[in-house]
Every structure is written in C-alpha cells, then in structure tokens.
Amino acid sequence: MSKRVAILTSGGDAPGMNACIRAAIIACQKANFTLLGYKHGYNGLLQQEFIPLSLDSTHNLIQQGGTILHSARCKEFKNREGLIKAADNLRQAEIDTLIVIGGDGSFRGAAKLSELWDGQILGIPGTIDNDIAGTDATIGYFTAIDTAMSSIDKVRDTADAFERIFLVEVMGRNAGFLALNGALSAAADYVVVPEFFESAETEIKKIVNQIKAQRALKGPVSFIVVVAENVWPNGLTGLTEALQYHNINDVRPVTLGHVQRGGSPVAQDRLLATTLGEFAISLVGSDVTNIMVGEVNQRPITVPLPKTWEETKPLNQARVDAMRTLMNERYSCD
C-alpha cells in the first residue's frame, strides 16, 4: 500500500543529515512511497512549507554537510496552539508517517505532537553531541570528533612553537562525549567534562598540578586543555583567570564553535545515517510509532522516544580509563 511520508531536520545541523535524507528518498522510491520534505524544521510544518523529494534530489548528496531541508529551532512548536496547527497541517497534507531527524529537543516536540496526531512518528538521532540515550552514536558525532581532533592538532603546532598553554573549548551541550574523544584522539594533556566536574576549585587544582608536574619533568613545553562547553563558570575566560591566579600566565583560549557542525561527513557518519534512514522507511506502515531508530552494536533498534531523554547516556568506561591514565592523572602529584 502506498504511503505518504514526510521528513524534516530540526535543531542543530549535523554532518550526515543529508546522507540520511538520501537513504530515505531511495528507500521510499523502492517501496513506492511518496516522500515530502518539510523545510526549516518544525517551522516548515507550521507554515506547510514542504517540497517533494525524488531521486533527482540524491545526486552527490551523501557527501554534503548541513541539510538540504535546512534546520531551525521553533518556539511556536513548544505551545499547544502550535502543536494543534502542526497536527492539522499533517492531516491536510495526508501524511501517514512523519520522520524527525534531530536531538532530544526535537524528539520531545515529536512526542508532544503524537498526543494530537494519530499518524506514525519516527525519530532519527542527528546531533554532534551524541547525548541521546538508546543508541551507540548519533549522526554527525564521528565527523565532529574528527573536526575537533584536526583543530586541536593545529592548535598544538602553535602551542609547541611558543611553549604555551592552550585551552580549547568544544561543543557537546551538557555531555562530554565530544570533548573526551576529541581530546584522546588529539593526544591533549587534560580534558574537562561535565560528567566528572565537581567544582572549579577542585578542577583547577588538578589542572595546575598536572601542568607543574609535566613542566618539572620536561621543562616549559606546551600543554593542551580541552574543555566541554557549559562546564566552566564563565567559560574559557573564567578558566584563564583561574590559571593566572595560580601564576600560570602563558595561556591562550580557543573556542572552536560552529565549525564542528560543518564539513563533509566521515565514513562512519555516512554509514550510520544511511543505515538509520533505510531502517526508518522499512518501519513505515507498521504498528510501531513514537520511537527513535538507533544503532547498538552495529544493529538497528527501536527505542521509545521518552527513553532517549529520560535516561542519561554514560561515557564509554574504557575511554574514561584511558583519559585518566594518559591525561588527567598522567603525572603523580604526591
């Protein structure tokens, strides 16, 4: 039976969203489904701004960063009037299944919509933060690690040239996945993540001890501290001032910012996005709804949408152990 499927990208963009859209287009074509793309996230749903998606849209799409449907955050969608309007628009467009690619905020909105619309709702995790429970990784996460690693490598070059301390802030919202793995892959000297942050006073003592221990052993060499965003009070400025208070003055802060969201997706994100996009379409018309499609141990799974934000996704313990041995507790400070 032919179905009408709609897809949108919501919230922060992530490399691989286009790869996911491509997979959905091809899978819909094979299943003889009609696929529409709502532009500008939930704003497009409220404005009934959609375009048909056909095989013509897939040419050279898998390697493109960003999203051809564009993305946005939508305040109107957070109130009941906006949700009612969205549900009405889906009925008018005769949509059977809505696919939402985004993070937990997008999923919360989709779950609220399900209370007012009886169509099928499927979520696909797309965020560089990797903070969605129920899936090993989210679309865009691997590329963001690669971007952070490459940027930290470049920072290290100039840090070595001047034998300075550099503070590098990476994204992650309220999770340390990107900071931890970016720091490990770039061989940084210390990383600050929210999962283990107790207080600025406690953390600054640890950082200062590691800097002094390293320099006592090696002399005035460079030192790279990777910091997850939204962790240190007053950000990198606050951390710089804290170090200066401890007479460590050769400090330079660097915020990577939105560059982490851009770029062509790496192979892992293309594969994840393609797998999840195809799997989502395979569920169209089934009795599963209000779920996220994710991947665990390289197998696609379904997860109830509320579970994706109600549970806290833990950092990989092996990576945490490596962090302590190779970075944060590398030098004995007895």
UniProtKB/TrEMBL annotation:
<dbReference type="GO" id="GO:0070095">
    <property type="term" value="F:fructose-6-phosphate binding"/>
</dbReference>
<keyword id="KW-0963">Cytoplasm</keyword>
<dbReference type="GO" id="GO:0030388">
    <property type="term" value="P:fructose 1,6-bisphosphate metabolic process"/>
</dbReference>
<dbReference type="GO" id="GO:0005945">
    <property type="term" value="C:6-phosphofructokinase complex"/>
</dbReference>
<dbReference type="GO" id="GO:0048029">
    <property type="term" value="F:monosaccharide binding"/>
</dbReference>
<keyword id="KW-0808">Transferase</keyword>
<dbReference type="InterPro" id="IPR022953">
    <property type="entry name" value="ATP_PFK"/>
</dbReference>
<dbReference type="Pfam" id="PF00365">
    <property type="entry name" value="PFK"/>
</dbReference>
<dbReference type="GO" id="GO:0042802">
    <property type="term" value="F:identical protein binding"/>
</dbReference>
<keyword id="KW-0460">Magnesium</keyword>
<keyword id="KW-0067">ATP-binding</keyword>
<keyword id="KW-0418">Kinase</keyword>
<dbReference type="GO" id="GO:0006002">
    <property type="term" value="P:fructose 6-phosphate metabolic process"/>
</dbReference>
<dbReference type="GO" id="GO:0061621">
    <property type="term" value="P:canonical glycolysis"/>
</dbReference>
<keyword id="KW-0547">Nucleotide-binding</keyword>
<keyword id="KW-0021">Allosteric enzyme</keyword>
<keyword id="KW-0324">Glycolysis</keyword>
<comment type="pathway">
    <text>Carbohydrate degradation; glycolysis; D-glyceraldehyde 3-phosphate and glycerone phosphate from D-glucose: step 3/4.</text>
</comment>
<dbReference type="GO" id="GO:0016208">
    <property type="term" value="F:AMP binding"/>
</dbReference>
<dbReference type="GO" id="GO:0046872">
    <property type="term" value="F:metal ion binding"/>
</dbReference>
<dbReference type="InterPro" id="IPR000023">
    <property type="entry name" value="Phosphofructokinase_dom"/>
</dbReference>
<feature type="domain" description="Phosphofructokinase">
    <location>
        <begin position="4"/>
        <end position="283"/>
    </location>
</feature>
<dbReference type="GO" id="GO:0003872">
    <property type="term" value="F:6-phosphofructokinase activity"/>
</dbReference>
<dbReference type="InterPro" id="IPR015912">
    <property type="entry name" value="Phosphofructokinase_CS"/>
</dbReference>
<comment type="similarity">
    <text>Belongs to the phosphofructokinase type A (PFKA) family.</text>
</comment>
<dbReference type="GO" id="GO:0005524">
    <property type="term" value="F:ATP binding"/>
</dbReference>
<dbReference type="InterPro" id="IPR012003">
    <property type="entry name" value="ATP_PFK_prok-type"/>
</dbReference>
<protein>
    <recommendedName>
        <fullName>6-phosphofructokinase</fullName>
        <ecNumber>2.7.1.11</ecNumber>
    </recommendedName>
</protein>
<dbReference type="InterPro" id="IPR035966">
    <property type="entry name" value="PKF_sf"/>
</dbReference>
<keyword id="KW-0479">Metal-binding</keyword>
